[in-house]
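User: quick one, sequence for these tokens?
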């Protein structure tokens, strides 16, 4: 594999774009810079072609939004049909109502919805809403909600006013005692508890139900960030899968198979409060994304897409684990099958990045794109044959790894280059 055109273009990008990319988790150094593609030429189904002409089976899938597959006909046709009519106008488009009807039917907590573009925008609107609804200022949060100040408040980041730090309190997922302790510590001040379900977190219905009850006991709302889990674990997201309905939820990736639309969805009395707040964006009713959302949601329901994601995701997990076990490499693929994660054990912290660099570079060389640790975002377009091809590639990589495992030769075979773009890493 050669990546010459990608590397040349990225050199240019570094002169024009701070850090060279728009998304922290998509920066080339997050993968295997120098031994991994950077720029896409075309994406179709579960495959992506880079500008050097190499073709890969992709599990990065834009960090989650692609649920059906790239260039998925029903969605492309819906976008094209709306494009004929218009993109955005001074009048509202019927697609706003059509998508809202589908969302409220599919998502257990959704009695009303409001659209945004990005995930961070929607989570920030949700934060404003819960504070306005309860008249309280503190938010208890577990996990990544996006870059805005409201969520960066607890991260002590340059540029974030320190006066916000008392408004956001973090708690560790899965530990009810810790959550209760924070609620007690900030008694009468907590507007809401926000959390998301990450792969491998061993989230259970019992934990989520208990967290919801604790929030309610303290007069706080219970909010689920379903930006990754929505339209992936079940048509109605993690709340349907785990059978726990939050007061409010946020969706983004997955709604429209890659078109930029996110939403806050929730209880009618809470959502109604938004009508009186200055929460308003020019592009909220952009119709191409909403037409794509309608087509995507219909397809997810009619084709039982999330059942398929579990099945094909399980095949990937089992195959990778079998390949690793056969080669004797201490690698595990685990977590939730539609968004599985991967880990190498028995590797020192110092060597961990090097091992991942080798794995990603060798998988890419065999036509497979993955991220360090996952998540592996399977889609409705990955076939069993695709998964088997990927598992065969992994078996080959593990066999090569085994030959040099625990020897300096493994590090010597890593072709990744260093590039310092002054990037600060903070997200998933
Ligand atoms: C759980 C979760 N919430 C919020 C966000 C922020 O979404 P966006 O990057 O669209 O602002 C992300 C992004 O990865 C996420 O994974």
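Assistant:
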């Amino acid at each position: 594999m050669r990546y010459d055109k990608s590397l040349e273009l990225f050199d240019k990008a570094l002169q024009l774009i701070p850090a060279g990319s728009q998304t922290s988790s998509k920066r080339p150094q997050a993968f295997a810079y120098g031994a991994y593609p950077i720029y896409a030429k075309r994406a179709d189904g579960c495959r992506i072609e880079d500008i050097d002409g190499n073709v890969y089976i992709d599990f990065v899938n834009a960090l989650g939004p692609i649920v059906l597959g790239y260039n998925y006909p029903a969605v492309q046709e819906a976008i094209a049909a709306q494009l004929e009519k218009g993109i955005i106008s001074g009048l509202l488009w019927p697609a706003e109502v059509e998508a809202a009807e589908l969302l409220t039917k599919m998502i257990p907590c959704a009695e009303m919805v409001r659209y945004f573009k990005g995930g961070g925008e929607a989570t920030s609107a949700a934060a404003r809403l819960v504070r306005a609804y309860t008249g309280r200022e503190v938010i208890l949060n577990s996990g990544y909600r996006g870059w805005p100040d409201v969520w960066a408040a607890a991260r002590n980041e340059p540029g974030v006013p320190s006066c916000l730090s008392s408004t956001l309190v973090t708690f560790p997922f899965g530990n009810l005692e810790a959550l209760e302790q924070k609620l007690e510590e900030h008694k009468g001040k907590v507007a809401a508890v926000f959390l998301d379900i990450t792969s491998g977190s061993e989230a259970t219905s019992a934990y989520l139900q208990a967290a919801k009850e604790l929030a309610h006991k303290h007069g706080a709302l219970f909010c689920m960030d379903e930006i990754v889990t929505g339209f992936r674990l079940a048509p109605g997201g993690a709340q349907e899968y785990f059978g726990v309905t939050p007061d409010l939820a946020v969706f983004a990736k997955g709604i429209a198979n890659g078109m930029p639309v996110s939403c806050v969805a929730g209880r009618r009395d809470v959502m109604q409060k938004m009508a009186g707040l200055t929460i308003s964006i020019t592009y909220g009713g952009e119709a191409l994304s909403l037409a794509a959302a309608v087509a995507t949601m219909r397809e997810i329901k009619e084709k039982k897409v999330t059942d398929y994601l579990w099945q094909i995701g399980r095949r990937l997990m089992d195959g990778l684990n079998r390949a690793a076990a056969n080669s004797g490499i201490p690698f595990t693929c685990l977590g939730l099958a539609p968004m599985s994660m991967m880990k190498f054990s028995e590797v020192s912290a110092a060597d961990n990045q090097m091992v991942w660099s080798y794995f990603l570079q060798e998988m890419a060389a065999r036509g497979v794109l993955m991220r360090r640790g996952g998540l592996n975002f399977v889609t409705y377009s990955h076939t069993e044959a695709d998964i088997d091809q990927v598992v065969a590639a992994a078996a080959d990589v593990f066999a090569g790894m085994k030959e040099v495992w625990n020897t300096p030769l493994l590090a010597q075979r890593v072709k990744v280059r260093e590039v310092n773009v002054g990037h600060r890493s903070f997200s998933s």
